[in-house]
Amino acid sequence: MKLTRAWLLTALLYFLIIAVLGLLMRYLMIYPLPGFNFKYILHAHSHVALLGWLFFAIFIGFIHAYLPDSLKSGYRWLFVLFNISVVGMLVTFPFQGYALYSITFSTMHILLSYYLIYKFLKDLKIMKAWHKKHNSSLPFVKAALFFLAISTIGPWSLGIIMAKGFSGSDIYYLAVYYYLHFFYNGFLIFSVIGLFYWFLEHKNIKFNRRIVNSFYKPLLISCILTFALSVLWTKPAGIYYFIAASGAVMQVLAFFYFYHSIKNIITNVKESMSEIAFLSLKFAFVIFALKIAVQVISALPFFADLAYQQKNLVIGYLHLVLIGIISAFLFGFFSAINGFSFSNLISKSGIMLFWTGFIATELMLFAQPLLAVLKLPLPTDFYQLLFTLSILMPLGLLGFFIGQFLPKKLAETSETVTVEASAA
Fold it and tell me: 195 exposed, middle or buried (CB, 10 Å; 0-12, 13-18, 19+)?
């Protein structure tokens, strides 16, 4: 995994950078600094989070899982171009927001992603012999790529909307929410589920493939229907509430099938990886269940309005999904296939520090709207405490990143999973 591990560490570096940018934003909420535009930094933070860390990590997982070494090298130049686009966004958004250069780099990323989807699907066809072995995971991966492609309609439409002078209007934000919904509820969620089932197939852990097929269809339909949740803040016609509620309920049904597809193999999964990798996956699946519960509740008009009024609720929810589900899964998955190392004190301490900061700040973000509902005052030092607890996240990621370059303990080396060069 030498080639893809170098790429993976680059993705992890982006995660560290966005954690620092997130900390900077929480500092600016308390102490504004001349020359620092909060909105511009937010653009850099969100773009590098989605298109640097998460996008890279997912595709690294796909390439490692489904392609042999003979085909992996063909992605090296694409990886370089993607890095140019991400670094370009990182250095332009904080200084100009949405302007010529930042839009150029983000457009470059979209166009490259189209080619990456095409190339990956083309290379998959070469590996037809694997299709039978991976017939449970591949539908999720292909659906993920479909949602990635259609999510880009959002950014393309933004250019037209802004050119027409509707920046900041309802339709502007609907285009943003369209992109976010199909990127994280579509591309990211389907990707990690696909990688999880690939791991079971790869380790020859027997699971109920028939139930997986029953899980796939309602999850796919619910992803489309639950976009309606993202429009409820506009107070649309009653049919949209019905569609949103139907999608949310269908997600519950999908999760029921998902749980039943793996409930009898949890012990097998635990035995196939290190304890900390298993805990990461377990944490991700618990938060996945919580996410579905939150979406069911948000279909109710009162909570839909609350989400619109309380921005911290939206921020907390996005972090819950992107960090609590996707990032937690990626930490566990890449640890299980020997991509990330938890085998020294620095990396272990770092990741524990990171998760402590994440859980603490999430509790605060969700507490703020709760206080508003109860008509209780917000503590005067709320944002100071939020900033202080947020320090743990980049600090922990820094330790984890450094730990990837340190020697492993001999006692723990034998516990890591050896990955075949072909990743069959």
Answer: buried
Please determine, for residue 415, whether its predicted confidence score (pLDDT) is greater than 80.
no
Is residue 297 packed enough to be buried (19+ CB in 10 Å), middle (13-18) or exposed (0-12)? middle
Question: pTM, whole model, 2 decimals?
Answer: 0.92
Q: Do 322 and 49 meet the contact criterion of CB atoms below 8 Å apart?
A: yes
**Alpha-carbon dihedral of residues 267, 268, 271, 274, nearest 10 degrees?**
-90
341: which DSSP letter? -
Question: For residue 396, what are the contacts with CB-CB under 8 A and spacing of at least 6?
Answer: 349, 350, 351, 352, 353, 354, 355, 356, 357
Contacts of 68 (CB under 8 A, 6+ apart): 127, 421, 422, 423, 424
Q: pLDDT exceeding 70 applies to what percent of the chain?
A: 94
- Three-state DSSP at 80 gives helix
Give the burial class of 210: count Cβ atoms within 10 A of its Cβ; 0-12 exposed, 13-18 middle, 19 or more buried.
exposed
Q: Which token pair is 385? A: 């405490």
The pair of three-digit structure tokens given for residue 144, joined into one six-digit string: 């993920």
Buried residues in 374-384 as b, exposed as e (16+ CB within 10 A)? eeeeeeeebbe
Residue 417: per-residue pLDDT: 36
